[in-house]
């Protein structure tokens, strides 16, 4: 909690200057990075998924139980070689926990719900592959300013999986993208969400 809070606090233009191997100075700061880092932590998603999450991916499993419904691209590619005819078999759900809902509200969730607007408000002229690269490199740059521990961008996903597993036990597989159980029934998702108290779960608690 403290390290992540400190990370968000150092996200300022004046802290973004980095010197490349060729001596060129670049600024790693972008106004939307705080949302990108929070979204990565709150969803446990891989970089490609984080940068392509949209408001119209939000799905109501049942009244009061929300989740992102996306395609598990990594598993789909590995198992089918990118066969478009099978893509709908690789649905993945990301539970909207209390802290993720807070982030979405900060991003004007009610205003944008149902639209194809990306959650991370990066410039529309940027390719998603470039955004992934920016997020990863910027995370490496800024995290070094708050801790001497070796923390990498992928550790945000590991942290998320730890929290979800503590809440759900073995059932966490259906939300972490590691499940091979095929199509999961909606009521099973909802029951697990409620039983695990995910509507109260805070991956990052900015009030702690």
Q: Could you write a compact summary of the structure shown?
A:
By secondary structure, this protein is of the alpha+beta class. The protein contains ten helices and five strands, in the order αββααββαβαααααα.
What does this protein look like?
The chain is of the alpha+beta class. The chain has 10 helices and 5 strands, in the order H-E-E-H-H-E-E-H-E-H-H-H-H-H-H. The strands form 2 sheets. Strands 3-4-5 form a 3-stranded antiparallel β-sheet. Helix 2 packs parallel to helix 8 (154-168). The chain is globular. The model has no long low-confidence stretch (mean pLDDT 90).
Task: Summarize the helix and strand pattern as letters.
Answer: HEEHHEEHEHHHHHH
Q: Could you list the spans in which at least 5 consecutive residues all have pLDDT below 50? A: none
- Overall outline: globular
Q: Tell me about the largest β-sheet.
A: 3 strands, antiparallel
CA distance, first residue to last residue: 8 Å
Number of helices: 10
Q: Overall pLDDT, averaged?
A: 90
Q: Into which percent range does the helicity of residues fall?
A: 40-55%
Radius of gyration: 18 Å
Please count the beta strands (DSSP E, at least 2 residues each): 5
Q: Give the amount of beta strand, in percent.
A: 5-15%
The spatial strand order of the largest sheet comes to 3-4-5
Structural class: alpha+beta
């Amino acid at each position: 909690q403290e390290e992540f809070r400190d990370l968000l606090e150092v996200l300022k233009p004046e802290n973004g200057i980095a010197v490349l191997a060729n001596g060129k100075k670049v600024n790693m700061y972008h106004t939307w990075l705080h949302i990108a880092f929070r979204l990565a932590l709150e969803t446990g998603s891989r970089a490609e998924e984080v940068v392509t999450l949209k408001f119209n991916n939000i799905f109501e499993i049942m009244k009061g139980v929300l989740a992102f419904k996306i395609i598990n691209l990594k598993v789909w590619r590995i198992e089918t070689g990118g066969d478009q005819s099978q893509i709908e078999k690789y649905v993945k759900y990301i539970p909207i926990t209390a802290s993720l809902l807070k982030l979405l509200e900060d991003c004007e969730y009610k205003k944008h719900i149902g639209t194809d607007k990306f959650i991370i408000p990066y410039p529309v002229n940027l390719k998603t592959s470039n955004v992934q690269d920016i997020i990863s490199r910027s995370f490496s740059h800024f995290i070094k300013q708050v801790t001497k521990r070796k923390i990498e961008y992928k550790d945000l996903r590991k942290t998320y999986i730890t929290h979800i597993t503590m809440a759900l036990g073995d059932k966490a597989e259906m939300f972490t993208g590691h499940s091979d159980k095929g199509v999961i029934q909606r009521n099973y998702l909802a029951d697990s969400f409620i039983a695990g108290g995910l509507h109260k779960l805070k991956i990052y608690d900015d009030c702690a």
